[in-house]
Design a protein that fits this description.
The chain is an alpha+beta fold. It has one domain: HIT-like (HIT family, subunit A). Strands 1-2-3-5-4 form a five-stranded antiparallel β-sheet, covered by helices on one side. The longest helix is centred in the middle third of the chain and has 12 residues. The structure holds guanosine-5'-monophosphate (5GP) and zinc ion.
């Protein structure tokens, strides 16, 4: 299921360009366009749903292993996995996404 108006569905389809990190039948991952640190990635289900509660378990189950792979590949020893649901919780894009945000040593620059 996808939504014609959704920017992340357009990214999955390739209608909007992205720096792709991973793709499988159910999961897509790409770099965030406004990174909070180098390597800030977004891991999303291909199934379009606004909130975590809208996504089937079978799709959700494949997300964390991908976030783990990307965290390892980033080389970061410290990182945050973050997932916002709803405006009050700071969700801006209404397609479920997990942020993987490396937290580099302050000496390395962006933190
Ligand atoms: P939220 O606040 O909804 O949890 O985070 C949405 C994230 O999506 C933000 O970090 C924002 O930079 C990212 N984002 C929004 N539009 C695009 C886009 O067109 N391409 C990419 N790669 N990231 C986007
Ligand atoms: Zn979508």
């Amino acid at each position: 299921m996808s939504s014609a108006a959704c920017i992340f569905c357009k990214i999955i389809k390739g209608d909007i360009p992205s720096f792709k990190l991973f793709e499988s039948d159910k999961v897509f991952a790409f770099l965030d366009i406004q990174p909070l640190s180098r390597g800030h990635a977004l891991v999303i289900p291909k199934f379009h749903g606004e909130k975590l509660t809208d996504i089937p378990d079978e799709d959700l189950l494949e997300i964390l292993p991908v976030a783990k792979k990307i965290a390892k590949a980033s080389g970061a020893t410290d990182f945050n996995i973050l997932q916002n649901n709803g405006r009050i919780a700071h969700q801006v894009v209404d397609h479920v996404h997990f942020h993987m945000i490396p937290k580099p040593n302050e000496k390395e620059g962006m933190s």
